[in-house]
Amino acid sequence: MKKIFLGLALSAIVTFQACQSADKKSSTMKDSVAGDTTMVNGNHVVGAESTETSLDDDGNTFLKKAAVGGIMEVEAAKIALKNAKSADVKSFAQQMLTDHTKSNTELKELAIAKKVITPDALPAEDQIHLDEMKKMTGSNFDKHYVDMMITDHEKTVKLFELGKQNKDSDLKKWASNTLTIIEGHTAKAKELASVIK
């Protein structure tokens, strides 16, 4: 009986020590992982170097502004597809949705590669603007949307002209390629404005 009791006691002690040892290990591992893991654009990047971007301040700012602009174009296009009266405006909105969804994906990939955290949502004032647009329909919506596209794309052209001058070759190439598309959007929006007056 003593042997059984002694065996159980010894077994309990070994089990208790093993549990404590495992707790210490998992605690240590948890701390080291938490210390080395950073989220960049929704992806885990391991290592302290993950927060050091290879872009200068201008490149960093460019990507962040371009991200917000791209999100705005996609969300406004979705509203236009529902609320526009003109088939031409709806067709233009579909082109905006297609082109800007593609460029937003490319921007996100570039930002991840350069370790730049870009916004995934719009600033409050832009979201308020979109919420107001959702209440508009017909010809009033068409005029508002097309005027907005002209204004937004003219500003975006200036932004991308700056991006095209950045010293980072990847950013410069993407900005140049995307600028050509944006200039096409600007011209098309101006054509539409003359038709839907």
Automatic annotation (TrEMBL):
<feature type="signal peptide">
    <location>
        <begin position="1"/>
        <end position="21"/>
    </location>
</feature>
<dbReference type="InterPro" id="IPR012347">
    <property type="entry name" value="Ferritin-like"/>
</dbReference>
<dbReference type="InterPro" id="IPR025419">
    <property type="entry name" value="DUF4142"/>
</dbReference>
<keyword id="KW-0732">Signal</keyword>
<dbReference type="Pfam" id="PF13628">
    <property type="entry name" value="DUF4142"/>
</dbReference>
<feature type="domain" description="DUF4142">
    <location>
        <begin position="60"/>
        <end position="192"/>
    </location>
</feature>
<protein>
    <submittedName>
        <fullName>DUF4142 domain-containing protein</fullName>
    </submittedName>
</protein>
